[in-house]
Amino acid sequence: MTGFLVALQFLTRIPSPIRRPIADEELGPSARWFPLVGAVIGGLVGLLDTLIAPVATPELRAMVAVIALAVLTGALHLDGLMDSCDGLFAVTSPEHRLAIMHDSRVGSFAVVGAATVLLLKYSAFLALPTDQRLPAFVSLGAVSRWAMVLAAARYPSARPSGLAHMMRSSMTGRELPIATALAVSLSLSAGVPGLAGVVVAGVVTLLAARYTLTKIPGLTGDVYGAICEFVEVAVAVVLPLLWRLATR
Amino acid sequence: MFSFIVALQFLTRLPSPIRRPVTLEDLGASIGWFPAVGVTIGGLLVAVDAAARALFHPAVASAIDVAALLAITGALHLDGVIDTFDGFAAGTTREVRLAAMHQSAAGTAGAVAGCLVILATYVAVASLADSVRWIALIIGPTAGRTTTLLSYCFYRYARSEAGFSRSLKEGATPFRAALGFATAAGVAAGLATFGGVLALAAGLTCSILAARTAMKQLGGLTGDVIGAACELSQLASLITAASVLVP
Q: Transmembrane residues, as ranges (chain B) (predicted)?
């Protein structure tokens, strides 16, 4: 239970009953709960979406969902995406890339990356069919947070200190199997196509991690965040297609 | 053919078949091909759009088009938009503005401008009628790269140091400009006669406005400003196409 609350406090701005700073060695073990936290986030977004349905246009609902995701998470993953874009797309050495990612200032690639991902997310949420929106949000919330566990468990960290290293060094090896089981069962809220969403998440994670490794020697917390954002978008984009294929 | 590939390599992130190092002279000489690269980018975009529309909701397809345009070009010109608006917003003297444009960190004005251009491009692409989308998607990028060519040809260059932009400025001879312009005008007229030419003209007019502003603020153009002019004229062309190209 504490593990879940640690994960909730780490990944969201939802007021946490723990009321204390998270210790470094608690972070790794809490990763097994990431998909459940993602489902909670997605569930809240889905509830809000359902609540405003009688009064809001489809465009407004899509926009509100995009904003709700950013607010609930404190734009944690968007921040990672922006730093990753600046660092990975810069034409420079791996060391300097890591320094750029550490720099809190924002460059052109960060602006372009964030705006594009937000735009894609908006359009994808706009396209979610009316009767499947809540399960879609739950499912994409769960698998996008699972993708971060997958990335942390499978790939080396770039720095000897920092979030990715902290997480990896306290992981026990049980996190990925448990998180995977959770992600698979939670994604089933969107039916069999939800399961295909897990596969999409896995592929996106693999591609993003491989690309990152060609630029810097390992992954960072920022890259995990970028992967989370990419998976959210990818799953939201392909779910309607998968549903159409499944009902054919 | 070599010059076309040099231009393609400079303006896009597409894998290039050139194995030998490209010199600054090669780059300058390739500028006449920029509009042809615009047509190529447009052609790729049409393919992306067709695939995306076959699979996804129209709104998603339009967002994918915008993302594809940015991915193909490596956001080269949008970077120019961000730097240019940061420069214009900074200080009152020419030197301060030029220095601000060199900063790699984005300021508020640049970030706002970048987001607005992306949003506006999305809305313009989403507004294109089904049967004429492909025409607008070719003319838009073509108008942008034609603007780049004409801006280098007709306006003073603001910086003195050597680099890409200086070579492009030296390469932008009236002959190459005429050749490139003929390419763009031919494609626009061939695809959609009046509407196509109007969409191209709107893009080029927008670039004149952008260039005049830059002349006033900086006393000349820079690579960033010309990138911004490219992006804005592409946008103006897409908006015009959405209004005048009706099925």
A: 31-52, 59-78, 105-125, 134-158, 178-211
pLDDT, residue B227, reads 95
CA distance B41 to chain A (A): 19
SS3 B221: strand
Q: Is the pLDDT confidence value at A207 over 80?
A: yes
Q: Map residue A157 onto helix, strand or coil.
A: strand
Return the number of CB contacts < 8 Å for A and B.
75
Which of B56, B60, B70 comes nearest A116 by C-beta?
A: B70
Number of separate helices (H) and strands (E) present in chain B: 11, 0
Domain range holding B70? 2-244
Q: Which residues contact A207 (CB under 8 A, 6 or more apart)?
A: none
**Angle at the Cα of B244 from the Cα atoms of B241 and B246, rounded to 5 degrees:** 100
Q: Do A108 and B114 touch (CB under 8 A)?
A: yes
For residue B66, is pLDDT > 80? yes
Contact A7, A27 (CB under 8 A): no
Predicted pLDDT at B117: 97
Residues near B129 by Cβ (< 8 Å), separated by ≥ 6? B242, B245, B246, B247
